[in-house]
Specification:
The protein is built from 49 helices and two strands. By secondary structure, it is mostly helical. The termini are close together. The C terminus is likely disordered.
Length: 1135
């Protein structure tokens, strides 16, 4: 790059016109234009004429040009293009840029190009101008430094005593200072020309990329030369553009501001801007673009670091809750903010003194307390894992301080010091478990991220070290924690999750078997003390993990588990005998003994194979007794059903993994058959929980023991296959209709949170019931026609079950298209019959009920998709069944009256659009077989369904969307149709005809002043006095995408064609307030570099409170072109 620039400088010194011509052609060709500016054009034509001539050279149809082309080559081109401009100014900064020719020519050309209607010219020239400005700012900064150095040398020499003062040196310094001053004035004029001629117009260009370039570069100027640019006159442009409608522009604003707020010395100059735009920045933490939200949070964090008083409590709270965001980068950024705000203000010495006094090994006690309080105050207790993940990167050292957490939980209260409350202890235990999980698994919780990523070697080593560290600590601490909190089910359930993250080899390697015995002892005590499902399942899972065969501790744990199961099964058998003997005379103690032991065994049976204890026998006896006597408590019945289910599954596992004998298969079949019969009988139980449990287990077992059991080479399991008979299928269907498709209980209208939670839980349960039955239909275990009763509720219960029913419909269609179509029409027939029963044969076809059936039919028709060939036979069958149903029953009053079901044809007509032309004729012929001659001549209202259905079959034959004469013709037809649809869409947006041959328009200014049409009223969400409002009041019109070869002469047509507002809103209060502010603070548009020490006489920059005077000067907004041709064969200087 250096050599290229040096060669150009040499050519410029020899013939500056030819050198500048090369530079002009460089900018023209880098825009993607194949035209070339000749020397006579350069000498004899104005810039506007040259640009117009070059516009005519765009002869490509593509809208791409170098700056918009994808790929690494064009990315490198952009970098080299910018680098060339920077090096050019750097090499010319001592002489050529001050010759009043080179820079004037370049700036004039770029200004003209930046005002062009051609997007490629405007984009490329704006980038070049902004990089040129950045290079000039760097030159100005160097001049300022040299001036200050010269001034110091001058003052030092002048302050010498007369005998030692060198007058010649003083004169040289004065001459040098004058020369530097003149150069600085020249640079100021150049920067003013670029800023006022290009920036103030293009920072609100219609193209987001151009706006982003402007904002990115002004951020560079403010950081590079803060004395000149870091003031309100320039900051206001960044502030206004924070409201840009495009995320990439808002992102550039935030990054530009981050570079400024990173420097603590610049905070005083940013104070006014912070006060003015702080609310907008805080609101951007909720930006719809996640990248923008992340950068906004980081900017708010930088503001907090610079001045804690700048943010109010409300501002901080707006960021706090983002630690629970599902988007991890947003949450991590919010976690960094939370860390800075809450965990960076502690006094280390005081913390260490307190820890020493309390005998703690860690000084983080107060910080952990603060974390617990924050977690409780946020009232999102189920999101502890999200909170930990958000803070993991910024507060990892604190979150891994498990010693301190344990000490806080185990320490006894000391007089005069506050101890953790019960809620705080529960919260701390939950947070501790989440930190352990995060350290052991080394990936975010479920719901954050797209899945487990591959860990690097460093991350893997950290994970192993953390797992070893937490294991060594909690092997000793966990038994003590369980001992202290064994009476609290919530705390115990959380604590018992910890062993699953242990490195169990540590027990053997560290000879810590005594701690294992202590743990097993505590778990046994917990099992004996609790009957809560969560606690028992946690105990069962812990035993399962500790019994893993890969670890040497397995035998020790297995012995303890077997002893526990032996005791529980003996107790269960004894209590069952007592309960069955006493029957109706059983008291609460007998019931509790059975229930408590059965709950424990069921929880363990879920994770452990207990078939050798034969729990199924006693459970089956309880269920049979309950059915025969009708007095079995519902909880015992539910637990007995579940335990029996687990027993059957474990027996099936043993059979499938081994080599079963015929006797084994017969025995299991007998068990399954008897259990299915019991479950079927339980469907009529008076207790809803029992019925629901029996239904779910029936569906699960029918799925497991279906015809799919023998797939995959397991034909030997054929004796275990069960196919439900019609009676069982009907009972299952009736259960769904009675317990799923019910209206929400309207008894309590309190609307309190608990009631809402109960409703959500009930809905979740009903969805599970429906999904279980639908799976049986999808896998062809229950006959597909049973789905008709499900499909008919699609519209009525769409909000609750729409997704389940739609998926069922989709899967059944994949299985059998024709049978699925028959099922759909059957569901509509059922609804129609129900309507006839309610309203009688004289239906009111305008009623909401009829409209509901038609709407359901329309929805069903949409599910057939666009490929009519694939669904041809299914749709034809549907019409055939519909016609037969419509004419099935003749009117008892005589043949001159319409058939009873004739009105169903109006519903059936919703599917006519899915018939192809030939099939419409076939269906019409089939319809005529059922019609008498008199029917076709009837025109009374009662015959309208027949008339409308016939018309739907007779019309559209010539206009049908598809041709089926051949495969190729059908494809051609669809393509033509797609093209015509696209063309019609284009015609709707293009209201004016395109002239054939028009001259290229004059490319001067892009401003159009007219009275705004009604559709261009400012956005009601935009604040009065905002930039949108300003542009509206002043008649500034933004124009849409145009092609210079198809340039409309009617400018109103241009405005109405694809108008694109730039900003969503602008944080300016009102125009009146702006004028008031302008009276007090005058805007300074001229770039006036701050006075050096030798320029005290120059006026200082006056403050500016973000007024829009600059915008008043700017009256141009670009007309965008989709055209920006760039040929692949074009060559450029920058490689």
């Amino acid at each position: 790059m250096q050599s290229v620039v040096d060669e150009w400088i040499e050519s410029y010194k020899q013939d500056r016109d030819l050198a500048l011509l090369d530079l002009i052609n460089f900018f023209i060709q880098c825009s993607g234009c194949k035209g070339t500016v000749r020397i006579e054009m350069f000498r004899n034509m104005q810039n506007a004429e040259i640009i117009r001539k070059m516009t005519e050279e765009f002869d490509e149809d593509s809208g791409d040009y170098p700056l918009t082309m994808p790929g690494p080559m064009w990315k490198k081109f952009r970098y080299n293009f910018c680098e060339f401009i920077s090096v050019l100014i750097r090499q010319c900064q001592y002489s050529i840029i001050y010759d009043e020719y080179m820079m004037d020519t370049v700036i004039s050309l770029l200004t003209g190009l930046s005002d062009s209607q051609v997007r490629a010219f405007r984009h490329t020239s704006t980038l070049a101008a902004m990089k040129l400005m950045t290079a000039l700012v760097n030159v100005a900064l160097n001049l300022s430094i040299h001036q200050d150095n010269t001034q110091r040398q001058y003052e030092a020499e002048r302050n010498k005593i007369a005998g030692k003062r060198a007058n010649e040196k003083l004169e040289l310094l004065l001459q040098k200072r004058k020369e530097l001053q003149e150069n600085q004035d020249e640079i100021e004029n150049m920067m003013n020309s670029i800023f006022k001629g290009i920036f103030v117009h293009r920072y609100r260009d219609a193209i987001a990329e151009i706006r982003a370039i402007c904002i990115e570069e002004i951020g560079v100027w403010m950081k590079m030369y803060s004395d000149a640019f870091l003031n309100d006159s320039y900051l206001k442009y960044v502030g206004w553009t924070l409201h840009d409608r495009q995320g990439e522009v808002r992102l550039k604003c935030l990054k530009a501001l981050q570079n400024l707020y990173t420097n603590r010395e610049l905070f005083p100059k940013l104070e006014l801007f912070t006060n003015r735009f702080k609310d907008r920045i805080v609101s951007m933490t909720l930006d719809k673009e996640y990248d923008v939200a992340v950068e906004a949070i980081r900017l708010v964090t930088l503001i907090l670091q610079g001045s804690e008083d700048a943010l109010s409590n409300e501002d901080c709270e707006n960021v706090y809750h983002l630690v629970y965001s599902a988007h991890r980068p947003v949450a991590v950024a919010a976690g960094e903010f939370l860390h800075r705000k809450l965990f960076s203000r502690h006094d280390p010495q005081a913390e260490e003194a307190l820890a020493k006094r309390r005998g703690r090994s860690s000084p983080n006690g107060n910080l952990i307390r603060m974390l617990v309080l924050f977690f409780l105050e946020s009232e999102l207790h189920e999101h502890a894992a999200y909170l930990v993940d958000s803070l993991w990167e910024s507060s990892q050292e604190l979150l891994k301080d498990w010693e301190c957490m344990t000490e806080l939980l185990l320490e006894e209260p000391v007089q005069g010091e506050e101890v953790l409350s019960d809620r705080q202890e529960s919260a701390l235990i939950e947070l501790t478990v989440c930190t352990i999980r995060q350290a052991a698994e080394a990936h975010p919780p479920v719901g954050r991220g797209t899945g487990k990523r591959v860990l690097t070697a460093k991350e893997r080593k950290t994970q192993i070290d953390d797992k070893t560290k937490l294991t060594e600590h909690f092997i000793m601490a966990l038994p003590m924690l369980l001992s202290k909190y064994q009476a609290d089910s919530e705390k115990v359930a959380n604590l018992l999750q910890i062993p699953q993250f242990f490195d169990l080899d540590v027990y053997s390697a560290g000879r810590m078997e005594k701690h294992l015995d202590a743990l097993l002892k505590q778990i046994r005590l917990v099992v004996e003390k609790h009957i809560e499902t969560d606690v028992l399942e946690a105990c069962s899972k812990t035993y399962s993990i500790l019994c893993s065969e890969e670890y040497t501790i397995m035998n020790r744990v297995d012995i303890a588990r077997s002893q526990l199961i032996d005791e529980m099964t003996d107790r269960f058998a004894h209590s069952v005998e007592e309960l069955l003997q006493e029957a109706e005379e059983a008291d609460d103690d007998d019931i509790y003994n059975v229930l408590s032991t059965l709950k424990r065994l069921t929880a363990f049976h879920n994770a452990h194979d207990l078939t050798r204890w034969d729990l199924f026998g006693n459970c089956y006896r309880l269920l049979k007794a309950g059915i025969e006597q009708g007095s079995m408590p519902e909880q015992i019945a539910v637990q007995a059903l579940q335990c029996s289910h687990y027993s059957i599954l474990w027996q099936l596992v043993k059979i499938t993994e081994g080599a079963p004998t015929k006797d084994d298969l017969v025995a299991l079949r007998r068990v399954v058959k008897s259990f299915l019969a019991v479950c079927q009988q339980c469907l009529s139980n008076v207790n809803t929980p029992v019925k629901e449990q029996a239904f779910m287990l029936l569906c699960d077992l029918l799925m497991i023991f279906s015809h799919q059991l023998v797939s995959g080479g397991r034909e030997g399991l054929q004796p275990l296959v069960f196919n439900p008979d019609s009676t069982l299928q009907n009972e299952l269907l009736n259960f769904v209709l009675d317990h799923v498709f019910i209206d929400q209980d309207d008894e309590s209208q309190k609307g309190d949170e608990e009631d809402e939670a109960n409703k959500i839980e009930a809905l979740h349960k009903r969805r599970n019931l429906l999904a279980a039955f639908c799976k049986l239909i999808i896998y062809d275990i229950v006959d597909m026609p049973a789905a008709a009763d499900i499909f008919k509720h699609y519209m009525k219960y769409y909000n609750d079950y729409g997704d389940i029913i739609k998926e069922t419909l989709s899967k059944t269609r994949q299985t059998d298209k024709i049978l699925c179509a028959k099922t759909l029409i059957l569901s509509l027939q059922q609804l129609f019959n129900e309507l006839l029963q309610d309203q009688g044969p004289n239906l009111d076809r305008t009623s909401s009920h009829v409209s509901g059936i038609k709407e359901l039919a329309r929805r069903f028709a949409l599910t057939f998709g666009l490929d009519q060939i694939k669904t041809r036979e299914a749709v034809a069958t549907l019409h055939k069944d519909g016609i037969e149903f419509a004419f099935k029953y003749q009117n008892p009053r005589g043949p001159e009256f319409p058939p009873i079901n004739l009105a169903f044809l109006e519903v059936l007509s919703e599917f006519s659009s899915k018939l192809i032309r030939q099939d419409k004729k076939t269906v019409h012929s089939y319809l005529e077989k059922f019609m008498s001659e008199s029917m076709s001549e009837r025109r009374e209202d009662v015959w309208l369904p027949l008339i409308s259905y016939r018309n739907s079959l007779l019309t559209g034959g010539d206009e049908d969307h598809m041709s089926v004469t051949s495969g190729s013709s059908s494809k051609t037809g669809s393509v033509r149709k797609e093209s015509s649809v696209e063309g019609s869409w284009m015609m709707r947006n293009d209201t004016l005809p395109t002239p054939g041959a028009l001259q290229t328009p004059q490319l001067t200014s892009t401003v159009l002043r007219e009275n705004r049409p009604a559709e261009h009223m400012p956005d009601p969400d935009s604040e009065p006095g905002s930039e949108n409002d300003f542009l509206y009041r002043n008649g500034v019109v933004r124009c849409g995408t145009l092609n210079p070869r198809k340039f409309h002469t009617d400018m109103r047509g241009l405005m109405e064609d694809d108008a694109e507002p730039i900003f969503e809103d602008v944080m300016m209060s009102s125009r009146g307030q702006l004028e008031d502010m302008n009276e007090e603070f005058e805007d300074t548009m001229v770039i006036d570099l701050p006075p050096s020490r030798n320029r005290r006489e120059r006026a200082e920059l006056r403050p500016d409170f973000f007024d829009s005077a600059a915008m008043i000067e700017d009256e141009s907004v670009s007309i965008r072109f989709s055209l920006s041709p760039f040929g692949p064969g074009a060559r450029f200087w920058v490689n």
